[in-house]
Amino acid sequence: MLGGSPRAIGSTTRATAKLGEPLSEPDPAAPIPVPGRKSVQDYIDETPRWPDGTAAASVPLTRMQLRIWGLAAAGKFFEGMIVFMTGVALPLIAAEFDMNAVQRGIVGAASLFGILVGALALGSASRSAAITRPPI
What we know:
- The chain is mostly helical.
- The chain folds into two domains: 1-60, no CATH class; 63-132.
- It has three helices and no strands.
- Helix 2 runs antiparallel to helix 3.
- The chain starts with 39 loop residues before the first helix and ends with a helix.
- The model is unreliable at 1-16 (pLDDT under 50).
């Protein structure tokens, strides 16, 4: 959680306590936690706490948050690299195969279409794997 008051994951308390005070007031709108199961969003929203339940003064990223950030950054990096490489190679490919504007457009769009298909296929595959596998 960026900004705002700290809130424990799976907590059924309102985030109204000051830094250093435990949270105690029940929140009827809070979701009921499932023991042993954390969603990706739970890992993203995780706030570090001391053993006595008070919020930490600073909010560094947890290992899981760093992993999620790294995977997202790597995906954007490789997407950009593919689009860049297509842009660099396209004039050479067009000259070699004597391509017109429509053919160059199809070749340029093919990499973007491949990114779309890969994101749809691997995104749904990872979601189904996450449902069937035990939580991290």
